[in-house]
Every structure is written in structure tokens, then in C-alpha cells.
Design brief:
Bound molecules: NADP nicotinamide-adenine-dinucleotide phosphate
Structural class: alpha/beta
Shape: globular
Order of helices and strands: EEEHEHEHEHEHEHEHHEHHH
Helix content: 40-55%
Strand order of the largest sheet: 3-4-5-6-7-8-9-10
Oligomer: single chain
């Protein structure tokens, strides 16, 4: 497995498995299958509601001696109403407890809303206490990331943001490189939006190597030096998505992918009023 070294010297796998939108009753099995398939980076979040089941899948893989805890890189995140410092500290402890873990490898502020500075103090304290090895942010646009780095003592190791062929974020990558913050891509397949898995350009590139459009996308992100999370509940697709380390895209292939950029999220803009309104309403539903 390729790894990336974060700005605190911690090494993390470059390809990981995400559990967003996996039905609760399938999560433990999916995480276990993913570890069996070779994934070592596992990504969940408090708001996904499946931290406990994710922990169960991890515990089973460790019990069956497929991996040790140290082989794995486990991530969780806190949500908007959990950002005040005291709540953030309690949320980290809660994640550890429900996941049956003594430490997490990465903990993120999930959304760029709320008391992100209070949350950051709690994350930094948890890092100092050895509860989390690395800390970071998610869904921060470059301008906000720069402000955040400027106003905090501990620099985020990671910013987990949407990156896929429709929203390539090349300029954002330049800014993140400048500040030493590693980009981690969510929704690398844009969850299949805009016909990603059938896209003729991606399919044609893949055909040269006996690979699928999905494998081309993951390989492209790996070659860009981005950490990438892929999600599937199906073991065949888990195997397909991790089978990307035996070929390389050429400059010509990459130029064709670059030309697909729509420079727009396949989902939503975190600064759009209707989106912030949606988050506030969702927060009321799920967090209060
Ligand atoms: N920080 C954030 O705000 C944020 C937001 C979104 C996601 N994430 C993280 O990023 C992870 C990945 O993103 P995502 O789950 O939203 O989207 P994604 O990985 O882009 O797409 C997942 C979808 O693609 C399908 N799929 C996967 N592999 C496939 C293949 N080889 N061929 C055809 N279809 C395939 C899956 O279906 P099946 O499962 O049926 O195979 C699923 O419907 C999440 O699980 C989560 O951990 C973070």
C-alpha cells in the first residue's frame, strides 16, 4: 500500500475505505470485508451513526488476526453542534468508547461551521494526550484553510474535501501544498454522478490497461499525491477499487482527465445559503 507522510511525520495509507451511507446492519461486515480485501485506512464519522458497527468490524478483523490495531489507520469526525471545546472533547472520548479503541489515527472537524476554533483546541489536546495521532479539518475551502492555519498553533494534518474528475481542485491543491496540509478526497467517484462509471473518456483510458473507469479515477488521484477514500458494500468492488497499484497513467491520459473538470462540486457548495440552511435543519434533526 502506498503511504503519505503527514506534516507531523505520521504515515498514512494513500487509499482508504469510507463507510458513509452504508446501512447500519451492513457496516460491521463491510468494514471486516474491506480489511480482508487489504484496506488499512477506515473512515467514519459521528454523524454517520455507525461508529459502533465500524469498531465491531475492526475488532473482528483483529480477533481473527487478519491485522493488528497498529496496521490500521482509523478516522472519525465530529459534527457541527459538537464543535464547542467541551463538547468536542467529550465527542472524541465517545468515539473511542463506542469504537472500542484506545486511540484513533485521525480525527477531523467534519464541517466548516460552528465553533471550529473551540473544537480545534480540543483536538489538539486529545492529540497531545495520545488519544488521536493526527488531526485535521474537512470541507474547508482554501481561503478558510489558510485563515485557520494562520490563527491556530497546531497546523491541520489533513483537509478532507470533495475531489473527483468533475471537481478536480487543482488550484486548491497548490494552496494545500503551500501550507503542508494533505488533501484527502471524498466521493472520488462523485457517487457515480454525471455517469462517471460509464464515462467514455475514463472507460477508454482504462481499456488500455484492462482497468475500469473507477480504477482510472482512483489511480489518477493516487498519482496526484492525494489520499483517497472509496466506498462500496460489495466485496467484488472493494477488490476492484484496491487493484490500482499495478499500472500507471501517462501524461496523455492525465491530460484527457484534466479536460473533464467542470470546476464545480457534483454535490453542493458549502458557502451557498440554501446549503448552509440545509445543514442547520439537518443539525436540528440529528444532533439536538
Ligand atoms: N467529509 C465529508 O464531508 C464526506 C462526504 C462524503 C463522503 N465522505 C467519505 O468519503 C467516502 C467515499 O465517498 P462516498 O461514499 O460519498 O462516494 P464514492 O466513493 O464516490 O461513491 C460510492 C458509490 O459508488 C459505488 N461504487 C463504488 N465502487 C464502485 C465500482 N468499482 N463500480 C461501480 N460502482 C461503484 C458505490 O456503490 P456500492 O456500495 O453499491 O458498491 C456507492 O454507491 C465516504 O464513504 C466517507 O467516508 C466524506
Amino acid at each position: 500500500m502506498h503511504t503519505m507522510t503527514l506534516n507531523n511525520g505520521v504515515e498514512m495509507p494513500q487509499l482508504g475505505f469510507g463507510v458513509y451511507q452504508i446501512p447500519l446492519e451492513e457496516t460491521a461486515e463491510a468494514v471486516y470485508e474491506a480489511i480482508k480485501a487489504g484496506y488499512r485506512l477506515i473512515d467514519t464519522a459521528a454523524v454517520y451513526g455507525n461508529e459502533k458497527e465500524t469498531g465491531q468490524g475492526i475488532a473482528r478483523a483483529i480477533k481473527e488476526e487478519i491485522v493488528t490495531r497498529e496496521d490500521l489507520f482509523v478516522t472519525s469526525k465530529l459534527f457541527i453542534l459538537q464543535t464547542p471545546e467541551d463538547k468536542a472533547a467529550a465527542t472524541i472520548d465517545h468515539s473511542l468508547e463506542v469504537m472500542q479503541l484506545t486511540y484513533l489515527d485521525l480525527y477531523l472537524i467534519h464541517q466548516p461551521y460552528g465553533d471550529v476554533y473551540g473544537a480545534w483546541r480540543a483536538l489538539a489536546a486529545a492529540q497531545k494526550a495520545g488519544k488521536v495521532r493526527s488531526i485535521g479539518i474537512s470541507n474547508f475551502k482554501s481561503a478558510k484553510m489558510i485563515e485557520f492555519v494562520g490563527l491556530t498553533e497546531v497546523k491541520p494534518q489533513i483537509n478532507q474535501i470533495e475531489v473527483n474528475p468533475w471537481y478536480q481542485r487543482e488550484e486548491d491543491q497548490v494552496w494545500h501544498d503551500k501550507y503542508g496540509v494533505q488533501i484527502e478526497a471524498w466521493a472520488p467517484f462523485a457517487e457515480g454522478r454525471h455517469g462517471l462509471f460509464q464515462d467514455p473518456v475514463l472507460t477508454e483510458i482504462g481499456a488500455q490497461y484492462g482497468k475500469t473507469a473507477g480504477q482510472v479515477v482512483l489511480r489518477w488521484l493516487i498519482q496526484r499525491g492525494i489520499v483517497v477514500l472509496a466506498k462500496s458494500v460489495r466485496p467484488t468492488r472493494m477488490a476492484e477499487n484496491i487493484d490500482i497499484f499495478d499500472f500507471a497513467l501517462t501524461e496523455e491520459d492525465i491530460a484527457k482527465i484534466t479536460a473533464l473538470d467542470k470546476q464545480e462540486s457534483a454535490f453542493f457548495d458549502h458557502d451557498a445559503p440554501q446549503q448552509v440552511e440545509w445543514f442547520m435543519n439537518r443539525m436540528l434533526d440529528t444532533e439536538k
